[in-house]
Amino acid sequence: MTTDDPILARLTALRAGDLPVHGGRTMAYVYDSGLEGLDELANAAQAAFAGVNGLDMTAFPSVVELENDLVRRATALLGGGAGTFTSGGTESCLLAVLTARQYARKERGVTEPELVLPETAHAAFHKAAELFGLRVVNVPVDPDTFKVRPADMAAAISDRTALVVVSAPSYAHGVIDPVVEVAREAERRGVLCHVDACIGGWYLGHLRHAARQGQDVPGVPEFDLSVPGVTSLSVDLHKYAYTAKGASLLLFRDAGLRRHGWFAHAAWPGYPVVNSTLQGTKSAGPLAAAWAVTERVGAGGYAVLSTRVHRTTRVLADGVERIEGLRLAARPEASLIAVASDDPDIDVFVVADELRGSGWYLQPQPAFGASPATLHLTVTAAVAQPETARLLLTELEKAVERARELGPVRVDPEVVEAAATLDPDALTPQEVEIALALAGVGEGGRLPERMAPVLAVLQELPPRLSARLLPEVIGRLFRT
């Protein structure tokens, strides 16, 4: 974009340093349909509603109409009887936990609520537990499949359990937890069960729709609100519905359950407050953009896009397995691929750096528990072009060869041993500086061009210490 306006020119210049959001080369964070005109439609809809305040639906009834339409569309696809439009997957997950906590307090008298999570559950649930005062009960997953075992989830449920969570699919590995079995046990114990389908729900739902229409795609495991015992489900529209950022839905089995997560207050001299989300004032722009895009694409269009993504995911998974030195951490059951290596000469963090240098972003994921270090690929419709997929596999193979020549990042074991003795809650500023310097992060407000050394150190540290250092790393980017 060229412009004579210096303000817009500055924004254009800043964007030049970002990852691209179109073309399929950024395989995390962004979702590109590849459809012409969809962005323009979303931008126009968002602009038309940018000034509309979603805080008060009595003042802006258009907000209710648009949200009702989106929820109806989602419940027709994924079941349930009520829903709330939110700003994204994190807010949907936070609200699911908050709703469950309130329900457990009011309906079951639980005073010390617990949240039962597979260790592969998204970090948003840990954030929710910290914000809303729940104790997390972490459940290990099968080290071969990376799915949680129903018996282990059942053993973790107690009289204090407010909510159990399963993923469809899990972000890190792209596999679907045994929703039916876990939900059945939760229902038997009188506990709510949430399915985190933020990334996969829209895709899996429409892939199932394509299968029913006779397309040659595999059956989708049962995962949604039609499953007995599932009481809530989160699904992001700004992922595989390809809407503008800031669009997610939290669906419930019924409106009565949804009400437990709402906040209402009348004991003050101002206007009566009712909040269905964590936000009060909020722009209706993302809501309007989501409505417009889903209206334009429609169920048939999403079925086509999901089928393309499914086929390309399989092509990429098969291609990865043919590259010497790489392997799949798990066979993908949705549109996410986790790539690992058992070759000691191949460091996947170095591979990620090499790919970024050639214009591709594959997200590095540090090792944790039984899960090895991996590269994460989110396959979108923009990737589902034969030439794009072919080029990605070619560049990935070249990056692996360059990584082999460069060799893996070596972390001094004495440094790791010394770091393990540190108390994350009592680090002095001097110890923080030493630890960051060892990871290759210095002063100056910029991260290193190559992140492999930083990631290699962070994954070797105890998780609590890494979590203590991460804000220090990111904090250096903000100079004021």
In the sheet with the most strands, the strands line up as 1-7-6-5-4-2-3
- CATH architecture type of the largest domain: 3-Layer(aba) Sandwich
SSE class: alpha/beta
**Low-confidence segments, ≥5 residues, pLDDT <50?**
none
* CATH topology-level fold name of the largest domain: Aspartate Aminotransferase, domain 2
Domain tally: 3
Largest sheet: 7 strands, mixed
Helix % is: 40-55%
CATH superfamily of the largest domain: Type I PLP-dependent aspartate aminotransferase-like (Major domain)
- Helical element count? 16
Mean pLDDT: 94
Q: Using the coordinates above, name the CATH class of the largest domain.
A: Alpha Beta
Radius of gyration: 23 Å
Ends: how far apart?
Answer: 30 Å
Order of helices and strands: HHHEHEHEHEHEHEEHEEHEEHEEHHHHH
Proportion of strand residues = 5-15%
What does it look like?
- The protein has 16 helices and 13 strands.
- The protein is of the alpha/beta class and 480 residues long.
- The strands form three sheets. The chain has a seven-stranded mixed beta sheet, with helices on both faces. A four-stranded antiparallel beta sheet has the order 10-11-13-12, with helices on one face.
- α6 runs parallel beside α7, α10 packs across α12 and α11 packs antiparallel against α15.
